[in-house]
Amino acid sequence: MANTPSPTIRRRQLGKALRRERENRKITLKGAADWLDTTTSNLSKIELGKQAIKPSHVRLLMQLFDIGAPESDTYIRLARESNERGWWASYSDTIPEWFETFLGLEADAEELRTYTAELIDGLLQTPRYAQAIVRTYWPQISDDELQRSADLRQARQQQLRTPNPPVLKVVLNEAVLRRPVGDVEVWKEQLEYLVAAGERENVTLRVLPFSAGPHPAMTAPFTLFKFPEGYDMDAVYIENERGALWLERPADRARYIDVFDRICSLALSPEETSHLIANLAHDL
């Protein structure tokens, strides 16, 4: 994870704190929005961490909540930090706004648990595999845009090589390995990269074989985010074609943790997974 929290984390921390302060004082969302001369929709997005808030607006809320220094100074500092640009801002022309939230949280997570049914996880994709996938989604994409998309994945992967990397646990449906992407050279390179990635201490890779039969993750792929103690940000991420769903309720997180644990129990061991993938690459 990053040495310092990203603007995304700061924004979500601040939003939760401001909501807590408002509710503790029995102030309605509309009452606080009117005080700021904004809409309830905008303030709701701020409290949910979906939108940054100006430090000047935080000062106004401190007045409404009757919060003085030094506590008010902490909130104002958080507002400034939440408005900073994350490393992914330089790629904003290639990614939708909703995916920026994912990148910010991914950069701060101490553990990522992912189940993928069709694609190799972005943190484990080679550049040429990534380009083949993107070209399939958007056939009209320019060469420059295609390269930028692949560069973004490579930038994301740098966090796995930091001195304090996150733990990455990935379960791949066997279908991912049985559906070649790109030509033989591209596909073999990707398979060999998976084998090498699985040898890292912070990466655990498992394959859920067809022989496992029905399993509890058949509805959709997902990613579980776990953050350092005190962040109170753990969440489940479920992506679709036009956006993403974030589940943060304890009951939802517990359900998906159970699902992930159960598919791990059905999956091949990391050693068996490495052997399977190596054989597939060798046979090409």
From TrEMBL:
List, alphabetically, the SMART domains matched: HTH_XRE
**Matching CDD domains:** HTH_XRE (cd00093)
Q: Which Pfam families match?
A: DUF5753, HTH_31
- What PROSITE patterns has UniProt attached to this entry? HTH_CROC1 (PS50943)
Domain (HTH cro/C1-type): give its ranges: 18-72
Please identify the protein, giving its name as recorded: HTH cro/C1-type domain-containing protein
What organism does this protein naturally occur in?
Answer: Saccharopolyspora spinosa
| Annotated SUPFAM superfamilies | lambda repressor-like DNA-binding domains
Q: Which GO terms describe its molecular function?
A: DNA binding
**Domain of life of the native organism:** Bacteria
Membrane-crossing residue ranges in chain numbering: none
